[in-house]
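Standup, Tuesday
Yesterday: got the pipeline producing structure tokens again.
Today: sanity-check two examples.
Blockers: none.

Example 1:
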Amino acid sequence: MFGTNILDERKSLRVLIVAPSMDLLGGQSIQAASLLRHLREHAQLQMGFLAINPTLKGFFGQLQKLTYIRTVVTSIAYICGLIVTVPKYDLIHIYSASYLSFLLAPAPAILIGKLFGKKLLLNYHSGEAEDHLRRWKRSALPIMKLVNEIVVPSEFLVRVFSKFNLTPRAIHNLEDSGRFKFRNRLPLRPVFISNRSFEWHYGVDKVLRAFSMIQKQIPEAKLIVAGDGPDRTQLLQLAEDLDLKNTKFTGRVGQEQMAALYDEADIFLNASTVDNQPLSILEAFNCGLPVVTTAPGAISDMVTHEQTGLLVSSDSEDELAQSALRLLMDENLANTIVNNAREECGKYTWEQVGHDWWQCYQAICNCEDVAFIDG
């Protein structure tokens, strides 16, 4: 029986996930969708979902197409959705980014959830946490202290939050390996892939510069650039300025198509300067793609140099290029990395992550006496 202080005579816990929908394709939306899909299989849970970015119809839908007005209309619709939906649930599980996004999405959910006396879980995902908490400490910190539990996907963020007297719980991101096909690629071909949003801190420009160096040594080398974002125009221009050949910009790619793109490539490149626990690296691990990456945020916790990947300096495109070339020349190293990285994925499976989430829900809602049932 669940704790009666939360559920009275009911035998199921009602959980509302508040997060971006897949219309805002990214780490948070993918994680929320994966978690929701798995948790809906459990009889002990009644799961609901509320998008922070509701899609409106008719006149209001037209207003959402207008710059500036879009944010106001969407925010009003979101807050109205919270007021109507939050009272129906016991626990509000709120996904969070940083800066203004925190004030627009998690903050209203926390305040409205608190108003209705609900249990609150803040699931924080931004690699920019330290800068966010330092610059916005008068707004973000008091709001965060209203929740019952803060969950972050990495020990890196646990360390960051501890600097501000907050003690989050670490639960790894969930990587649904069933969506991806492992393929042994040895010997490796010079076919590279980048799968990050087109924003400055994800360093796609550095990947393009590194690939330019690679292509000077291996003219037939290929690069797949998956993603989109505000820096798209600049990145396309940079590729033209570098005179890159055999370079394919795919635009935004849905999860269904991403597996096929990974299957086309042999080496994954990442050059982010601010990061947390990128799903794209976990996806590369699962597909058998050896990873060459910089090491901001939790990446150094995920990737062990020369064991599960190759780590390079964040300010060196040359080092990124040379490490990629090293993989092509050293088949034993590549094989070691691929096999170890595949084993590393066990930390991010539903069998592990699902139990961690269930224990977290139990602790918040005083229902420790109900066992987790793997659906």
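Example 2:
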Amino acid sequence: MLPTQCENGTTETPAWTITSINENSDWLPANDPCTLELGSGWRIPTSTEWTNVNNSFVPQIDWSGEWNSALKLHAAGGLYPNDGSLFNRGLNGYYWGSVQGSALTSWDLLFLSGYSYMNNYTKAFGFSLRCLKD
């Protein structure tokens, strides 16, 4: 894993310790990162809301469908749960939904060059978020 450049000019290599998440819960307001960072009324989209987004745009090979959507989605890639390393940056977009698939997995919107779909990934992956305001 590459070191991270910090604002104060130092570098550090993050310690990655979460390789699995096993909890039987959707994102609740008490632990929803959108609520915690942006305040009351902000939340992660549900899998149904992501499905509606998925059905509303036609993924393009040049990413114009995703980027030109109201959410400005981009292919940020993701972080592996075993070591936190970045994968598929510039190739795939992964966006968490707030609804779990099981105690170990959660629903996300996945898009690649030319197509997109709802997927069910292990909760310990590091994926992007988009926050909605109610």
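Quick observation on example 2: The CA atoms of residues 105 and 121 lie 5 Å apart. Residues 26-133 form one domain.
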